[in-house]
Amino acid sequence: MKQMPENLKYAKSHEWSKLEDDNLVRIGITDFAQSELGDIVFIGLPEVGRVVAREEQIAVVESVKTASDLFSPVNGVVVAVNEAVQDEPELVNDDAFNTWLFVIQANDPAELEQLMDADAYLQMIDL
Predict the structure, then answer these.
(1) Is residue 92 a part of any domain in this protein?
(2) Which residues are within 8 A (CB) of 111 and not within 5 positions of it... i.e. 6 or more apart?
(3) End-to-end CA distance of the chain, in Å?
(4) Could you read off the pLDDT of 58-115 as tens digits, one per residue?
(5) Range(s) of the domain holding residue 57
(6) CA–CA–CA angle 109, 113, 114 (5° rounding)
(7) In this structure, is residue 25 part of a structural domain?
């Protein structure tokens, strides 16, 4: 398992979230999640402009083993998607913490405080 970035927040559903300027939240899946999924073969991303609610199912990652839903960590609007992962979903397997999937303009970035820090996430996955 790779080092857990301390500057990210983590959801129980294995997404990472990074708060950036202007209340933008960049989201991907954790290295633990990609290792559990195995070889990722497809990523279904949300449409730009979609209004999402916190904990709403927003995207899907499919691997040779299974499919897994991804959930929004905040209320807001999808403002960007990483189109490169649609063509090359294996990028997530190669470097999960540097391969973002989508960006949400958060209505209230304080909602991220309900997520876990790196230590809590490591405890949850029992590493």
Answers:
(1) yes
(2) 54, 73, 74, 75
(3) 9
(4) 999 999 989 999 999 999 999 999 999 999 999 999 999 999 999 999 999 999 999 9
(5) 9-111
(6) 115
(7) yes
> Which of 57-85 are b and which e, b meaning 16 or more Cβ less than 10 Å from the residue's Cβ?
ebbebebeeeebebbbbbbbebeebbeeb
At residue 33, φ and ψ (nearest 5 deg) are: -60, -45
What is the reported pLDDT for 2? Answer: 56
The DSSP output letter for 91 is H
Residue 126 domain flag: no
Q: What is the pLDDT of residues 19-29, one digit of tens each?
A: 999 999 999 99
* pLDDT at 127 exceeding the cut of 70: no
> What backbone torsions phi and psi does residue 74 show, to the nearest 5 degrees?
-145, 165
Tokens standing for 72?
A: 């929004």
Residue 105 is part of a domain; what is its CATH number?
2.40.50.100
Which two structure tokens, joined as six digits, stand for 9? Answer: 């927040």
